Each structure stands twice: as structure tokens, then as C-alpha cells.
Amino acid sequence: MDLCHVPATREKGWYLALMAPNVKGPNYAWLDPSRLYCHPQGLQDCVADLLQPFWGDAIDMVAGIDAMGFILGAAAAATLRKGFLAIRKAGHLCVQTVAQPYSDYSGREKVMEVRTDAIVPGLRVLLVDQWVETGGTMRAAIELVERLGGGVAGVAAICIENSEGGKWIQERYKCSHCVPPGLQPRFDQPQ
């Protein structure tokens, strides 16, 4: 799909066709949404679809997860007129932080951190990332928010796979993603 084309009818998820499969190997995510972000209407519709279930909910802040979650998270925060918090991979913040170890989608052990002065008890945080594959990264972000006394208002991602971790998140938190139910099997991580 060309980056200027907008379909005559725009059903939920029409912009998913803009994504490209991984051609670089197992150390990369299996599907890349970054081309979708280059399409002005695709990005707007993706953010609108992600936020649709949360309109009217108590959300005080939006947090995006390093690094591609920063794009959708910042767009969601601007749309909701809320502040944006970056949840970073360890070593990138020069302020007081709290850290949480996790395993990412490739099984690599990593550490995520967040500044300690942004989340106060009772703050309702919408967590945003581009993709939830195994759920390890999102669970680390959830743990950081809750450890600082915040509440998770919801989880939003382009896709939340039907993995064990994805199901764990969907059973416990209000979630939103852009993949229509009939297409979900095509977006789940190939085994």
C-alpha cells in the first residue's frame, strides 16, 4: 500500500496492511509497524482505534514503552491531552529510577526502569507499546507502575498476541488492540 493512499472505506485495522515482515532474523520482532507510522491517516486511525475503549475512563497519564511504544504512547497522550511518561530500558535515565528485570520477546534478559517522581499513589496510567508478543516487556511496565503505587488504567498495543503472556495481561487489565478478531490468528507469533 502506498503511503499516500487512503481507502474509500476505513474499517478498524485497514492500516495493518502497511506493516512489513521481519527480513533480518530472530533478534528482531517478526512484524514491523514502523511504516504504518509514516502514513498520516493510518497513524491517526490506529491511535483512534487504540483509544476508543478508553474514552470516558479515568486516565491521568500515558506511558510508552521503550522504544517503539514512545511513538504510539506520545500520540495517545496528545490525543487524550494527558502527560506522557517514557518507560525506558535501563541506563538511559539520568534521574532517580526504579528498575524491573524482564525477558523480551526474543528471550533476552533485560532491565526496564522508570523515574520515581512521575507516578504517585492512585495515578491511573494507560500503558502503550507497539506489540505484545510474550508479554514480558508489558508485565515489567505493569510491575513498575504498580510498585510506585499507580494503577494500570489499561494496556494498548497494535497487537496483543494470544500467547500465554498476552492472555495473562488480557485477563487482568482492560486492553485494546487494532487486530480484528477474524485476523488475530494471522498476527499471532508463528511457532
Give a structural overview.
The protein is an alpha/beta fold and 191 residues long. The protein has a single domain (46-180), classed as Rossmann fold (3-Layer(aba) Sandwich), CATH 3.40.50. 28% of the residues lie in helices and 26% in strands. The chain has six helices and eleven strands. The strands form three sheets. Strands 5-6-4-3-7-9-11 form a seven-stranded mixed beta sheet, sandwiched between helices. The protein has a two-stranded antiparallel ribbon with strand order 1-2. A hairpin with a 5-residue loop joins strand 5 (97-103) and strand 6 (109-115). Helix 2 packs across helix 3. It is globular. The model has no long low-confidence stretch (mean pLDDT 92).
